[in-house]
Specification:
The protein has about 375 residues and is α/β, with parallel strands linked by helices. It folds into 2 domains: about 170 residues, Rossmann fold (3-Layer(aba) Sandwich), CATH 3.40.50.10490; about 150 residues, 3-Layer(aba) Sandwich (Rossmann fold). About 45% of the residues lie in helices and about 15% in strands. Strands 2-1-3-4-5 form a 5-stranded parallel sheet, sandwiched between helices. The protein has a 4-stranded parallel sheet with strand order 7-6-8-9. The protein starts with 6 loop residues before the first helix and ends in a 14-residue tail after the last helix.
Length: about 375
């Protein structure tokens, strides 16, 4: 019996984040219904381009959508992480404000500028100023449940983003895609959940291979965003250094670094996330890159998402990554929920400089 089949090992997850993933289908349904019901007070032709504004776990939804639908976007869409909006954002730029807490200072600053420019906006949040201040000033707000770690609220952010963009004609109608994604989530929970023993559980097997290494996440095209999601989940859940890069760009620089990787290479494991419908040259690059870097790292692992549609395969890879990183935390005997370094940073920001947080403000993502 594997360590990950022992209740006392999984018990390291004191907040029950692993068990919480079992409710992902219900969360998906709730998020989809709420997004479909939200009144959007402006027509589709009022939107010329889109800025998805967010940070951390909230912004990852934007990464996933922009990489997944890149070839299907009917209008320009960009993820914005930061305080100041780009100069081109104007009264026909839709600002999609994603902030789990509703108190993310970068997103609040961007939202203020969007209102000054009289831009249309939609918001997804559990509360905070995004809900109260901007909601009271006419920004439609989709209120989602509170009390979660932002990174564990991905479906609450991702599903509404897909629905809103579909409703506004920014991407084609996603009814069938969403139906298939729901099935994929259910299948992933069954395949990767804690009740399935390690010998038949890909997530547990991967966690055992990656828990004591430095995962280097590689994605390409539709898997670029999910590679970054895995990287962040390793950082926050397992408290592991992890880094993400994208093909074909990494073939123009990063592969050379493995020629003399030394002690780092002994700790590094490259994980390549694939999709069966990638460009033929990307497929060739994945195979060649694997062969070139293999002598300079501990291992190279290739994973392909399961599912009938791109969104379904994306959901499979997202759930797989969530389970892998939570299992890795258990193997490392670290509680996956706390993110102490982020809390320390926020405390420092609240007590130094000009932008001090007032009592009761969390500054959360």
């Amino acid at each position: 019996m594997s360590e990950l089949d022992l209740p006392e090992v999984l018990g390291v997850d004191r907040a029950g984040l692993i068990d919480g993933l079992a409710s992902s289908v219900a969360v998906f349904d709730q998020a989809r219904a709420a997004a479909e019901a939200l009144e959007i007070p402006f027509p589709s032709d009022a939107v010329k381009d889109v800025l998805i504004c967010g940070m951390g776990g909230s912004a990852v939804a934007g990464d996933l959508v922009t990489t997944l639908y890149y070839e299907q976007l009917r209008r320009p869409v960009q993820v914005h992480r930061g305080y100041y909006l780009p100069g081109w954002a104007g009264p026909d730029t839709l600002h999609l404000l994603l902030s789990y807490s509703g108190e993310t200072e970068e997103t609040l600053t961007a939202a203020m500028q969007a209102m000054e420019r009289e831009s249309p906006a939609l918001a997804v949040t559990s509360g905070g100023k995004i809900d109260t201040w901007y909601g009271e000033r006419g920004v439609p707000v989709l209120k989602i449940p509170g009390g979660l770690q932002p990174r564990m609220a991905l479906l609450h952010m991702l599903v509404p983003t897909v629905v809103f963009m579909s409703r506004l004609g920014i991407i084609p109608d996603q009814t069938a895609e969403l139906d298939a994604a729901r099935e994929s989530i259910a299948a992933a929970i069954d395949a990767y959940g804690p009740d399935r023993p390690t010998e038949a559980n890909t997530a547990k097997q991967l966690a055992m291979r990656l828990a004591n290494h430095v995962p280097l996440m590689y994605g390409a095209e539709v898997t670029a965003g999910v590679a970054y999601r895995w990287k962040c989940q390793f950082n926050e859940n397992a408290k592991q250094p992890s880094f993400a890069s994208v093909l074909p760009e990494l073939d123009h620089n990063e592969i050379v670094g493995f020629e003399k990787s030394g002690a780092f290479g002994e700790q590094a494991v490259v994980v390549m996330l694939k999709d069966p419908r990638q460009h033929r040259q990307v497929e060739r690059r994945i195979a060649l890159t694997r062969d070139i870097i293999r002598p300079g790292v501990s291992d190279v692992i290739t994973i392909e998402g399961e599912g009938e549609t791109p969104l379904a395969r994306l959901m499979d890879l997202v759930l797989l990554g969530d389970y892998v990183t939570l299992y890795a935390a258990c193997l490392r005997r670290v509680d996956p929920e706390p993110v102490d370094s982020i809390g320390t940073l926020k405390t420092g920001l609240a007590t130094t400089g000009n932008q001090r947080l007032q009592a009761g403000q969390s500054g959360s993502i």
